[in-house]
Write a structure and sequence with these properties.
This protein is of the alpha/beta class. It is built from 12 helices and 8 strands. It is globular, with a radius of gyration of 18 Å. Residues 1-13, 15-42 and 144-154 have low confidence and may be disordered.
């Protein structure tokens, strides 16, 4: 599937601003339920076919990754699966909350799932996360704190000054994935370090496009599901600020100063020309924010899942318009008529993406 195909008309900037405000309201009013990439009920949990693969990071210490081998034993076809904002230190949400790894390995694709990175956007941060100059405590990226479920609850607002990943040390996830982990997979498992794929949901969707934009030799394919792809739009930074406070008590200003080069470097809307110049094959998706059958698992799944997905949809539509204006021919878009911000939606999207992914890696 080459070129662009769409299912719904584009939305204007007014909707994006209203959606950003809606996200802030959705997060501030009910602080205490799952947000920003984790609505939905876990149904998969630990997969015994995978194995722990530990790699040292100079900044973050030992970091765990879960690796699943392709059914045919090849080492040339590799995809990285990135988690959402409430990533735990025990399992990646794609393993804990979905069955996508079984479909990917059956398609003869090796799957790499970094574990951890709560609220990180898989970026190299400017500094350890702190509030008013007060940092968080000790620990490393490999410490096994937190629930295994990607659907953990509880407000991070109470943990603004508490310890946690990325607080006593600086997050350097981009460096880890593109250097430390990449090289270790090559040297220890023989995995191909070039023409890999990468995909993620919500925060991970934004991160996947960033990694592909700046590391085209490593990533020939990138997928974003319900990603925030226009983070410099009006209201978006403050919406992300609220989400990061709730998802672990993190400070967006520690990640990147407002409106500086580091922040703009993380914005897919801004770096879109790179993705075209690299000819990176893209799969871009966001649902309608209208609940599908089975999406309503409680009042909070609607109160938060709908506005979060509406915001992701508006961001994704803005990115689509930007790419279209630039003449992009390297993107497939999928906008399902129903679905909210949950694992059920993202799992179904991976299944739709697999044939295109399979044809564009290795």
């Amino acid at each position: 599937m080459r070129g662009e195909w769409v299912r719904r008309p584009a939305m204007g900037g007014g909707w994006l601003k209203r959606s950003a405000l809606g996200l802030a309201a959705a997060l501030m009013v009910p602080l205490g339920a799952s947000v920003a990439g984790v609505s939905g009920v876990a149904h998969a949990a630990f997969n015994p076919s995978g194995f722990d693969f530990w790699v040292d990071s100079a900044s973050m210490g030992p970091v765990k990754t879960r690796v699943f081998r392709a059914a045919d034993g090849n080492t040339s076809r590799v995809v990285y699966a990135l988690d959402g904002m409430r990533a735990t230190q025990i399992l990646n949400g794609w393993e804990n909350d979905t069955e996508v790894v079984r479909a990917l390995t059956a398609a003869n694709i090796n799957v790499v799932m970094p574990v951890g990175g709560e609220s990180s956007f898989y970026a190299d941060w400017a500094e350890p996360s702190s509030i008013l100059g007060i940092g968080g405590g000790s620990g490393s990226a490999g410490s096994s704190s937190g629930s295994a479920s990607g659907s953990q609850s509880g407000s991070g607002a109470f943990g603004l000054f508490a310890g946690g990943p990325g607080k006593s040390y600086r997050y350097t996830w981009e460096t880890f994935i593109t250097q430390d982990l990449r090289n270790a997979l090559r040297d220890r498992l023989g995995f191909n370090p070039n023409r890999n794929g990468v995909f993620g949901l919500s925060m991970g969707g934004s991160g996947a496009l960033t990694l592909a934009a700046y590391h085209p030799d490593q990533f020939s394919y990138a997928g974003s599901f319900s990603g925030y792809l226009n983070v410099s739009a009006p209201g978006m930074r403050e919406a992300i600020r609220v989400a990061m406070i709730d998802a672990g008590g993190y400070n967006v200003d520690s990640m990147a100063p407002p409106w500086g080069q580091q922040w703009l470097r993380m914005d897919p809307f801004v770096f879109a020309p790179r993705l075209i110049a690299n000819n990176t094959r893209l799969w871009i998706s966001a649902a309608s924010a209208i609940p599908a059958a089975g999406d309503v698992t409680g009042v909070m799944s609607v109160i938060q899942g709908m506005p979060l997905e509406a915001l992701a949809l508006a961001n994704t539509r803005a990115f689509q318009v930007r790419m279209s204006t630039l003449g992009a021919q390297n993107v497939t878009y999928d906008f399902p008529a129903s679905g909210v911000h949950n694992w059920r939606n993202w799992e179904a999207e991976v299944y739709r993406m697999i044939p295109d992914l399979s044809n564009n890696i290795g």
